[in-house]
Amino acid sequence: MEIKNVEKLLAMAGFGAVTAGAAALGAQARPGAWYNSLQKPWFQPPSWVFAPVWTGLYALIAVSGYRVWSAPASPERTRALGFWGAQLGLNAAWSLLFFGKQDPRAALIDIGLLRISIDAYTHAAVKVDPSAKWMMAPYRTWVSFAALLNAEIVRKNA
What is the DSSP letter of 48? Predict the structure, then answer.
């Protein structure tokens, strides 16, 4: 195998590992009795939906980041990768705030910032690799839906 191909595989694995690490960090805080006691909106999906949805979203996030990283070095690429890292950190923080700290209000602020960072990433990424932007569309949609769920939980449990 050529060295260039090995480097690409290592980079792809690196983006996968970083994304999986953020997912694992967020998964440290899990729903429990506190969460089960909350009043939830009628449109709350069943719990079994979340794992497959997030698995697919994390795969797209990792591939999108890898595609941007693979583009020639430029200020736009650097900016996009910074936003990519920011959205991943905010993603992991949400679970820690919502489930770990049992603070839906703080989580709502976090998810608002997460949506902004996703938008900033996609705006920067499209200048580097248009496909990378579209890979984030399902994530952006899901996070928008999750923000609505979060807001309704805050409202119903005030």
Answer: G
CA torsion 24-28-33-39 (nearest 10°) is -60
pLDDT at site 20: 87
Ranges of the chain whose pLDDT falls below 70 = 1
- Number of domains composing the chain: 1
Q: Could you give the CA distance from residue 158 to residue 156 in angstroms, rounded to a whole number?
A: 6
93 CB-side CA count, 13 A: 16
Q: Which residue has the tokens 């909106």?
A: 41
Q: What percent of the chain has pLDDT over 90?
A: 78
Indicate left, alpha or beta for 91 from its phi (over 0: left) and psi (-120 to 50: alpha): alpha
User: Could you tell me the pTM of the whole model?
Assistant: 0.91
* Residue whose pair of structure tokens reads 């990519």 in the numeric block: 84
Provide the residue range defining the domain that includes 82.
3-156
Q: Rounded CA gap, 116 and 97, in Å?
A: 18
User: CATH number, domain at 117?
Assistant: 1.20.1260.100
